[in-house]
Design goal:
Blueprint lengths: L6 E7 L5 H17 L6 E7 L10 H9 L14 H5 L3 E4 L2 H10 L7 E3 H11 L9 H15 L8 H4 L9 H23 L2
Parallel strand pairs: 1-2, 1-3, 3-4
């Protein structure tokens, strides 16, 4: 895990050109808007289970990020690997298959690896758990532990409710839907860590 003064969120999809770049850059943008200078306590990045290295993000991902006033510049894809997973405080994947891939690569990350949509559900179920102190990094760590504990108390759902549909080869509207689902799912985390 990372040091206590920083909190790292790793987003993982298949090729690291559509869903995970959207999630990485939308979350970074929202953290900067909500936390201002304190956003430096958070690192967001992404990778792919089957990514080709150094590829640009999909043009529609870029377009949708710009529509959200988020910065797509400088992005290149990369392959996920065990050390990258082990250094993350929270791993959010596009699908159950990606989650399984990550946990197989780095079994010690099981308690902090979720699909993006699953984490949103579990984080909402965990709301009400005391959030200790004014430090947003500590609040984020507390929420991850509470979401992991909520797994055993919540009803399982179908893959259709846990997975983000892959918008590749689809029109830009599918990328907008994907971005909306990401924002909705990550919003509870952001609400907890940015509360005053």
């Amino acid at each position: 895990m990372t040091t206590t003064d920083r909190f790292t969120i790793l987003f993982v999809c298949r090729a690291n050109i559509c869903r995970s770049p959207l999630a990485e850059r939308l979350t970074r943008h929202d953290l900067e808007n909500r936390l201002g200078p304190d956003a430096t306590g958070f690192i967001t990045h992404s990778a792919g289970t089957h990514a080709l290295s150094e590829q640009p993000m999909h043009p529609y991902s870029e377009q949708v990020l710009r529509e959200h006033q988020a910065d797509p510049s400088g992005f290149v894809s990369r392959q996920v690997y065990a050390g990258l997973l082990e250094s993350a405080d929270l791993i959010l994947t596009a699908s159950r298959r990606h989650r399984s891939h990550c946990v197989t690569l780095a079994p010690a990350t099981l308690a902090r690896t979720f699909t993006i949509r699953q984490f949103g559900r579990l984080a909402r179920a965990a709301v009400g758990v005391p959030q200790t102190g004014p430090d947003p990094v500590l609040r984020a760590r507390t929420l991850v532990v509470a979401a992991a504990a909520a797994r055993s108390r919540t009803q399982p759902v179908s893959a259709a409710h846990d997975d983000l549909a892959d918008p590749v080869l689809r029109p830009v509207e599918d990328f907008r839907v994907c971005a909306a689902q990401i924002s909705q799912s990550v919003d509870t985390l952001l609400d907890v860590i940015t509360k005053s």
